[in-house]
Amino acid sequence: MYAKSTLPNGIRIVTERIAAVRSAAIGIWADVGSACERPEQRGISHLVEHMLFKGTARRSAREIAETMDRVGGNLNAFTDKESTCYYARVIDRHVPLAIDVLGDMFLASRFDPEDVRREQSVVLEEIKMYDDSPDEVIHDLFVRLMWSNSKLGDPVIGFPHTIAALRSEDLRAHMRERYVPRNVVVTVAGNVEHEAIVAEFERTFGGFEGNESPPVPERVRLSPGSLVVTRDVEQVYLIVGTRGLPAADEDRYALSVIDTALGGGMSSRLFQEIREERGLAYSVGSFQLAYRDAGLFAVSAGTSVEHAQETIGLIREAFRETYERGLGTAEIELAKEHLKGSLTLALESVSGRMMRLGRNELTFGRQIDEDELEKKIDAVGVADVRRLAQSIFAPESWGLCVLGPIDENDIDWTPAVA
Predict the structure, then answer these.
(1) Confidence (pTM)
(2) What CATH number matches the domain at 2-205, 3.90.180.10, 3.40.50.880, 3.30.830.10, 3.40.50.1260?
């Protein structure tokens, strides 16, 4: 089902043919994110992403949008800490058009100074929007706490002063330096033929040149601690977390089992105890952040001032119990079945499959199919979970971040010891 080719200039093209659908999702991935930015240019990768929609030598911003709307297609992009992706989803017969539009944006965007000024204002409004969303702010604060003084710790969107200082020549230089063939991966999933996709991209990207080496992952030092930010909002938002795993670590399957068992669903330990049994919170769940050379694992919740300390205590107790005892066989088996079912459901979408192709290629340099994933999940046992838990849940690695109508004196976060 998978096929991979490399163009003469170094661009990798990975496809997955799904003959049962009438659509296709196309993604152009640049191995570029906020983790490769200089501190004074924090947010430049995200601003570049915005600017690629603002017009080329052949199409205005309006014409880019109308071209895709005319065929019922979707066009979008995102930037994270280690990559940027420009993608489209169209009916299969419009795949050449989508490739032409994406290629035009990627290779010939204008970066007109007036457009840049307008888009800087848009991004500054986007920052304000996030600042008005406590659940977004708490996650940024938590990452900055746990990875302080690192590129991975800073927000992808940047800061108002760094965004305002950028100029069109800075964006062009960033693209020349980072958007080079060796750092670009194309992924396509849907009713497509690999050879036809390669031919289209060879035609569109054949003259694309550049020779920058791939980004070197940052070695991040964990900086656990506690942070309480007083803000006049309706709830107390909190995150208790610890070290996680890099994206390619072989123990990632065991961590996914722990994640699912502790806070990954309605039957998870913390959802049942905090929400169902005690009624302390509406929202509670665990999550992972995994990058090339670092990762975090955490539990987040939203609760009232009077319930904040109890909720924090229950999460800490779950961490301590997992550190000391691991998970039981029944908990592990339930988590494994949940994971496999979630995997199957996620693969029902051609866009989801396209995204998986890109992340696999950038992280592993190969595709990991469903059979291999299921075997790896099934292989996780009690001993694997116990060994991993002893590493990532060591109490000295725990961190706490709290935001809400609460004072730091209201929170007891004494240094955790084994």
Answers:
(1) 0.94
(2) 3.30.830.10
